[in-house]
Hints:
By secondary structure, this protein is α+β, with helices and mostly antiparallel strands. Helix content is about 50%, strand content about 20%. The strands form 4 sheets. The protein has a 5-stranded antiparallel sheet.
Amino acid sequence: xxxxxxxxxxxxxxxxxxxxxxxxxxxxxxxxxxxxxxxxxxxxxxxxxxxxxxxxxxxxxxxxxxxxxxxxxxxxxxxxxxxxxxxxxxxxxxxxxxxxxxxxxxxxxxxxxxxxxxxxxxxxxxxxxxxxxxxxxxxxxxxxxxxxxxxxxxxxxxxxxxxxxxxxxxxxxxxxxxxxxxxxxxxxxxxxxxxxxxxxxxxxxxxxxxxxxxxxxxxxxxxxxxxxxxxxxxxxxxxxxxxxxxxxxxxxxxxxxxxxxxxxxxxxxxxxxxxxxxxxxxxxxxxxxxxxxxxxxxxxxxxxxxxxxxxxxxxxxxxxxxxxxxxxxxxxxxxxxxxxxxxxxxxxxxxxxxxxxxxxxxxxxxxxxxxxxxxxxxxxxxxxxxxxxxxxxxxxxxxxxxxxxxxxxxxxxxxxxxxxxxxxxxxxxxxxxxxxxxxxxxxxxxxxxxxxxxxxxxxxxxxxxxxxxxxxxxxxxxxxxxxxxxxxxxxxxxxxxxxxxxxxxxxxxxxxxxxxxxxxxxxxxxxxxxxxxxxxxxxxxxxxxxxxxxxxxxxxxxxxxxxxxxxxxxxxxxxxxxxxxxxxxxxxxxxxxxxxxxxxxxxxxxxxxxxxx
Length: 613
């Protein structure tokens, strides 16, 4: 049956019966029926208002509870804990402040509140009201409860405006040691709601607290925090009945009450002056029989216009719902007016906006996750390369130790016998020069085996102590300064002031400097410009020194192998390619790293990073 047909049937049922009745006796019965209708309407208003009041309060509580599910409150840091409280605060505009409590109900820091007192987003939180908020609700009853359980405190006056506030405690985790969040919820939105619900009724619609016996919010602001009428207060003591209708005298009033669902101790009370509400009925006795026919005709015409308009507006809502189901989240429902249908359209539009925003956030999160996966993959590849390098060095070290041990014994015999033969001959002896060459070659072999042994040694406890990088560089350069001058190399040093102190083994660090300087000197042998620069400094909590040359540089295909043992790019093969390998091991043992920057034909720069002392 169409809406228009239902409206016609309703108007017929509402008008034929009065037309069939004649006389004041029937009007008296109509008056009694009107009284019952008033009571029913009052009951309906209180029931729907109680649901709305519960919805307003639970909307705030649910927003806090849902936001609290996002965190593991027992494992996050204090900074993250306070950040979580700020998130809870931002999700509930009716909350004036939130405060963290430990398992014993003691405050964890200061309340989270609106920093800008002129902001209209959250109610103001009275200065010095922290202790009142802590005492407003007891969290002992929740200690044995589960995560997400809520306790509601007694209502009290909030601030100089006299508005009502209640404290809500929310358990943040399971167990007796779990913390709580305490929120002060200001009931500032209830009075506009009550005013809308009472409409033009000649009475008052109140939200009352049964235990306190006073009005928390009212459609008439002057009634706020007034004590309840004694007869009304007595009727509210019956906890077995959720909704009540009764009449009180002096003056005669009709009262309807409904308990607010999910909010213990709160009731919605509507009080109407009986004489005032029934006054139009007594006047209508003389006019109802004449006006009912005219009213029926007018209502019939208006009903037709209204239902046609309502059908058009409903069609727009249906069209919007179908668009959302197709994924067209940009679609908006345009329905004029200020009734429930327009509120429904506004809700559809808000839902579409939120879904559209959520989809955009999801796409941004996906892009961010992709970027983080790429970064993590790059880090994993770098760690894998370092592990492979360490495995290579360990294998070569074991091989080098065995080779050096086997060569040292016969080499010592060769060197000793050669030196004995040299002692027995004069320098002018023809064989003396040959013996001297044998001695130099044996010493060179000895140096090679010593480098192999030094590379293969695994020192579990290096002698690390505070070292002045500038002093180490000066001492190392003093050993090779003459050789650099002889090769025509211009030396430039830039030592930081004050001196940079790092934690390292000074002897081994000198070997690193000498190895890098030796490689730089060899790389510049054929360069037209020979300039060697040494610098020290500190950055990001680490000390560093750089050895930069203007040599031939390192080609891209060789850069990944420069720290491998026995690998060299020198034109003259010497020192078996262990210099950088030993340097890498010494720096690694000290907890540092070596960076390489090179360009073919332009030069190379090695940067050694070490932890500061």
